[in-house]
Structures are given as C-alpha cells and as structure tokens.
Amino acid sequence: MSNYKKYLFFLSVVAVLFSTNFSAQVKKGQLIDGIAAVIGNEIVLESDIDEQANYAKQQGANVGDKCEFMESILNNKLLIYEAKKDTLIENRTAAIKEMAGSKYNQILGQFPDEKAMLAAYKFRTSYEMKSAIEKIDTDNYYGQQKYARITEKADVTPNEVTDFYNQYKYQLPNVKDEVVLSKISMYPKLSDAHKKEIIAKLNKIKEDIKGGQSFENLARIYSEDEGSAAVGGLYKNINLGQMVKPFEAAALNLQENEISDPVESEFGYHLIQLVKRNGKKYDARHILIKNTPNADEIASTKKELDSIRTLVLEKKMSFKDAAYKFSDDKSNKYSGGIMTNPQDGSDKLEKLSLDPTISYQIAGLKKDDITEPFQQEDQQKRIMLSIVQVNDIIDAHQLELATDYERIKDLALNKKKREIVEKWVNDKIPSVFISIDNKYKDCKFHNNWQKNPVTTAK
User: CA 143, CA 122: separation in Å to the nearest integer?
Assistant: First the structure.
C-alpha cells in the first residue's frame, strides 16, 4: 500500500475513532501501526516524518536528530489543530491544493528529469510527491498563521534590545562580507525574421500532425520544454491560473483534441492541444520552441545596456530611474533595481551566497561602480543581459548595537516570540488529547508531550 493510500486509510480510521470517543479507544503509546502521534484530531504518520525530513533536507534546512525533528512536528501540529478552530484564520486549503502542481513543476525545473527529482526527494511517483507538497504546505500555512496570531502583539523596547545584546553578544553570529547591489536586466528581443522562422517551424509541425503524425511523438522530438517533452508535451490536471495567460487563454478556447495556431508567451512559441477539460482543471499538450536569441540579438541588447550604463555614469539618469524605465526584471524593477535577500527581504547580500556570475562580475569593484553588460540566465534558464551597480560594501564584522541595531532587534524579537509560543504550547498541552507512539518514549522533549492523554480538547 502506498504512503498516500495509507494516509487515506488512517484518516478514515481516525475519523471513526474520534466519532466514538477516540481517547477511550487509544491509550498512550498504543497507536495504530504507522501513526507516530495524535494531537487533538491531527495525526502524525511515520511516513509524514520521513517525507518532511527529506523535503526539508532538499530545501537546505537542518533537520537535526529524529527526536528534535519530531518535537518540531508536534509543536506545529498543535498550532495547526488550534488554527483550524480559529475563525479569524482564513481557510486556504483549496488554494494551496491548486498551487501544489505549480510548485511541483518549479522544483522539477531544478533537475534534469522527473526521475532524478523523485529519487532525490525519495518519492516513488509524482502523485505521491504532489500530495506531500500539498500536505506540507497546508500544515505550514496553518502553523504560521497561528504562530503569527499568538505573537502579533509581541514587541521589544530599546532597553530590551540592549539587554538582549549584552547577554548574548558573544553568542551572536558574525556578519559575513556583504554587498548592497542594484541590477538592470533585459531580455534580448527576437527580430521579426527570427520570429517568422519559429512560427513557420511550428506551422510545419501542425501540418504534419494533420497529415497523421502523432502530436505526442512530435512533442518528444521538437519541444524544448524540459518539463514535458519526455512525456509527449503533456500537462495533466492544470489548475486555472497555473499557466501563463497566453497559454491558458489559447488552450481554453480550443475544443478537445483541437490544436491551436502558434501562441507567443514569455517563454517562446507554443503549439497547444487541449486533451480534456473537467470543471476548473484541464489536460493539455504543447510543443514549445523557446525564444532563444541569436548572437546578433544578444549583441543588440548588450549595446542598449551599455548606452544605459553610460547615461548613469554621466549622471544624466540615476540607476534607480533607469531600472524603473528599462529593466525587464519585475522582481526588482519597481524598487529601483535593488536586489533583495530571499531569506529576510533585506538589501544586504552575503558575498558567498551570490550567483557565481554576479560574484565574478563585481569582483574588485568599489562602491558606486557599475559592471559592464554581461550575460546570465534567469530561473527559467532564459538568456538575459544585465548590469549591476555596487551600492555599498560591508566588511565582515561582529554584530554591534551602533551599526546593526535592526538586526539585533529582530533577533531579540524572534527570541521573545519563541518564548511566547513555548508558553502557549505548554499551557495548551494539558487540555488537548495527545498520544505518542512508545518508540519515542526515550526522547527528551523540551515540552511536556509525554503527559497522560486527556479526553477534552478546548
């Protein structure tokens, strides 16, 4: 029986048990095989622990030992259990379910093929992995929302920040070498002749299909979409809004098995076949010819970027205004080209964490210097040309109140929030039914999870 089928089976069993006074049926440590713990009416499967640990490791998280990881899951399950009863927290289960497929495809884009991805994440099928993503994201959403509700009034005064710093200053992390950067990026535009060449190629493929050849086979031969070419261009159970607008508009205007004319999107040109539509979901095949620029088109964009660089260096335009006017990168176009740290949203970037291409380009530059135009790839592996301005250089140093107050304040506030949540968890534990499998009886949990189970859940 697959992990997912086990999960459905255990859910149905738990539903029955809870409807007939679960606490009277299940004693501490005597859980149904495969269930690691029950918190209220939330269950933790052994497979959940393994799946979440593997998923966390692949995302770069430090899992620690199994007892520590188990306690983090127990904490989150209690937050989730209470969150689902909290009428002020929006139920976004359906929206998260719709996004699971999109997230799956984003992860797939980081691997050479689906087989390699499933092996890395230790799933047997795409269905299992998508189900796990949906479950993990649902749990994360409810856990984070309840955490935010519990800590929404938390704050620290300047005196508390100072006290925190004085107490922990020798334990605080050192700041590594950092930079503040702004970037202008442009995608090379295809010439009219190049566009006509791609469209003509797709029209020829469409004629071959009309002549009796298989869309599926020709997708395997010609499609440049690494995520679907190997499966004949097929995407199944596509949610409305999941694909780029030109693709979706064209697909949903087709009858089943009908094939579109070439459709342009930001990724290139598509030939689309609607396979099946079922309510808000649909299956479609496509053949993608990417809008990969040729040498002349790249050179033309490089020349345009060089002119923009000259305008900034001659102070005829600020880099901020130039980014707003010319950049194709929507992630920072409207913030004057400022590159932000994906971890905390700040503008300070660790040099060691920079994209290697950018790191190479800014090597040796001083504050306010601007790189020459250089070529790089975006997350979808599309070619773009960029220039980068060095706004500030911050040498490695130990955190100090005078220069790093906001960072120290964030650390102090996060510590206070953790203490508030820890107290909340300990206060809730006595009133919630909890049972944990005996295999965890020797775990030294920080909170009192090994209490005797109770029957009431308030």
Answer: 25
